[in-house]
Amino acid sequence: MKIDIHVHVTPPDIIRDWKKIAEKEPYFKLLSESPVNKFATAEQIVEAMDKDGFDKAVIFGFGFQDMGLCRYVNDYVMEKAKEFPEKLIGFASVLPQHPEVEKELIRSVEGAFEASEKCSPRARVLPWTRLKRWRPLAHQLRP
């Protein structure tokens, strides 16, 4: 079985309005303006998987600073993972430092995500001392 474990999907309206969103999301802007960036909907991913011989893909959105955008894209990922269950495995995207992160992760797991988290690269700057705050959440999310 051939599985791509890192695939970003983007809802069509975010693809259309990415420049407007990028005005308020600097890291999203940086990545979106890259000459190697290619936005893709879930349907485009499934089509590319079939063409390139992939059986499954782990899909997720982007860890926006705006938790409303994270929720919106997580909803899209959940919807598409349910639409293509034989092909797509959904992960939630969050910004770990956001005060609503725990609520969104719980909502995402309850929404039938296979996995609970895809953190923005900014997660790498979290101090180790903050990891204690994740213990109660990890116990709650444990199957």
Describe the structure.
It is globular and about 40 Å long. It contains 7 helices and 5 strands; from the N terminus they run E-H-H-H-H-E-H-E-E-H-E-H. The chain is an alpha/beta fold and 143 residues long. Mean pLDDT is 83; it is low at 115-131.
- Low-pLDDT residue spans: 115-131
Structural class: alpha/beta
Report the total helices. 7
Please count the beta strands (DSSP E, at least 2 residues each). 5
Strand percent estimate: 5-15%
SSE order:
EHHHHEHEEHEH
What's the average pLDDT? 83
Radius of gyration: 15 Å
Distance between the termini: 25 Å
Please give the largest β-sheet: 3 strands, parallel
Write down the overall geometry.
Answer: globular
Main β-sheet, spatial strand arrangement: 1-2-3
The gist of it:
With 143 residues, this protein is α/β, with parallel strands linked by helices. Helices cover 43% and strands 13% of the residues.
